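Changelog entry

Holo records now carry the ligand SMILES as an explicit input line rather than a separate metadata file. Below, a converted record for adenosine-5'-triphosphate, shown in the new format.
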Amino acid sequence: MGREYSNALWVERLQLTNFRSYAAANVATDAGPQVIVGANGSGKTNLLEALSLLSPGQGLRRVPFSDLVRSGGDGGFAVAARAHTLAGATDIGTGLRATTVRSLSGDDDLLSSPSTGRGQDPGGVSDRSRVDTPAPNPSPQGGGEPFGFSDESLARNAQRGGGRAAERAPSERGRIVRIDGTAQSGSGVLADYLEIVWVTPAMDGLFTGPGSERRRFLDRLILCFDHGYRTIAGRFERAMTSRNRLLADGVRDDSQLSGFERVMAETGVAVAAARLEAVAAMAQIVGKRRERDPNSAFPWSSFRLEGSIEDSLQRLSAVEAEDLYAQTLRQTRERDRAASRTLDGPHRSDLIVEHGPKGLAARHCSTGEQKALLLGLVLAHAELLTERQEGAAPILLLDEITAHLDADRRAALFDEILHLGAQAWMTGTDKNAFEALAGRARFWAVQEGKIAVSE
Ligand SMILES: Nc1ncnc2c1ncn2[C@@H]1O[C@H](COP(=O)(O)OP(=O)(O)OP(=O)(O)O)[C@@H](O)[C@H]1O
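Structure line, unchanged by the conversion:
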């Protein structure tokens, strides 16, 4: 695809129909920072969640799509945007048809049930290419949520004989994605248009919680500069699901198992290599930021990947690492069968982060320090992308961002965002916390599922 890097990435218009608390909303704005203020439960996070659906995957809350449908609506929802993307100005639409949601709540095989065409037009941007049935068998890059390698749930699916369902990405089943009115086979294609990174209160425990959260965080950062990454990660997950299913079914036939293990070895090493490359690029930009501002409000961090494949890639060629991983998988079949999951692989790696100036593991830092570290990583990543893409800063979704940040850190954050030229969507309950942005951002007031410009 021919890309134009001349503009930052930004959403010019966002229209919501029957999305969570919004019956209908229309936001037309500029490329600068956006501040959304409202009471608890007014719909601020819902708006960010809608924006997050303009990138691949399940969105920032990672809930099944049927949860996004407004209760009391017609049973479907639509998110439509006019955005300035890596491919120029583009209409992006996504959603679920009313009929799709009804069939999701039953036992119907959604993917073969034809839609009657009722319900709103997901995407709502154009009707040039109506889709009456969701895409059969979503493409690898469109399916599921490979980020974070949810091995536990895959193992569960495998045990239930639900591998096929896992391939179909139940959470996104029935999702329709349109680019300039043309139906797409999955949400993976959105990576070619917008790069969106978010920080939410749920990520406050990123450094103390399970490794899967850190993998998911890292994987989303990688997706921004390696658009094929999701496809590879998805292939790994599907091969692992198939192996787990064979093990659960008591299969001991080497030819069946080794076929999937070979795919796991190839894609698993590719995933680990992409992560190592991303971590090295991040370390470089963090180093640059440290030199530029050693006393930054967002302290520099050191980080490394901990994982068996990552380790072997430090001393072996990619081909040797693949052979070693394939051999490990072959030797650990009985152990994995007993554990009902695959215990070795990139789905078990971890990102270890340390507070640079303090030389302290991030998990031992205070809540505010952890937030500052996380923001430091996100800002470094945004700077890296901006550098690589001639000014195309990613869109930032920063939910409840002023919580845990003192006035100096808030001011520093706003300055960085303005310097990056990123369209950052920030939410908060207190407008005063964004005082330093007065005249430099657009302010919105949200109330009971309605949004309006605020003076
Ligand atoms: N599917 C749905 N249909 C209708 N309303 C919904 C749906 N899902 C969530 N809501 C409503 O959306 C509201 C929550 O919105 P949101 O999470 O965006 O609030 P918020 O402004 O971010 O609040 P806080 O400041 O507490 O984080 C709740 O009132 C909830 O009942």
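Spot-checked after migration. The first strand starts at residue 10 and ends at 19. Residues 20-21, 38, 40-46, 69-71, 429 surround adenosine-5'-triphosphate (CB under 6 Å).
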